[in-house]
Model the fold of this input.
Amino acid sequence: MNAPDVAIWRTMVPMFELDSLAQYAHTLGFQVLGSAPVEPLGHGWFAPHVARFDAWLADGRHAGMEYMAARAGERAVPNSLLPGVRSAIVLWLPHRTPDIPRPAHGLGRVAAYAWGRDYHNVARKALRKLRRWFGEHAPAGEVYACVDTGPVLERAFGERAGVGWIGRSTMLIHQRFGTYGSLAVIFTTLEIPTADSPHPNRCGTCNDCVEQCPTGALDSGGLDARKCISYWTIEHRGVIPVEMRRAIGDWVFGCDICQEVCPWNDRAPRADPALWRPNPTHVWPDLVSWLRMSAEALEERLIGSPMRRARGQGLRRNALIVLANTGHTDALPEIERLAAKDPDPVIRATAFWAASILGSKKVGSLCIDDLDPLVRAEVESILE
Done:
């Protein structure tokens, strides 16, 4: 790996701390480090970020992600997570590995962060080691460490720490590594010299991510999850609204379009495959094989993969939509079987829709006697 990007620390942290912590973090996979002051009660520089987050929630842009609202208070007041917190260390873990050529059977696209190991597992393992480092080198301080499952506004601290800026895509953008990175944050009660000011915004007049989002999920208010392909294919449970299905295209898990069109990713180096172990069958999954498995069997196959976040039901549902969107009539027999016999009404309803899109000659008789309200609604909508 290249030397870690710690230039933003060089004039702010004693060389012993800089070299020791930065070099150790680099051996764990973190490529960028920065530090930011913490407003324990959410005031000062942090207040505008909290206000934007609150407005985002109030507008319903979090869609069905109620866990975002449930811990909003903790996100707004860092002191509730670590009493006496004074500083934040932000770490960047690049995760996009080199591309794997699309095989003949590859039908669905998967977001780059899910090509290999789950970044939560990779980052948490590294954070446990960094916590031990603090215990050995700075035992007087307390720490709270988290990846994106903790109630922390990571991108706000990343921008304030000088790691990058929050772009129009709402992603944190690093000048060298682009957007394909996972963030981890360590709060500490130690007083650590920090960046003098936030990283300047360098999106300029570029509006590519906004203009090329196929669903219009990005606008002046940021990201609207109610229109986001990643939300519907990963977070949403149940039947996907018909108006979103075609927009999903061939994305079976997540979506990278706003990152693919970002100029800052054009020359960004790829992450170390040895760390992430990308699996070709995860990069380009055979969707018909997913349909032939139960939800439980599919989840078992994907142990250690971020794709388990969507659960077996969600992945099979997404596979049906992608097969219909991409015109794979060769999958019709399997789709018709699921419409008639799958025990899950979400799968039966979605399979019925997919069969109708693919021109099934059996669509008039499929699910006719199905009494489940989800399936009935789908049948009535299409047959009308």
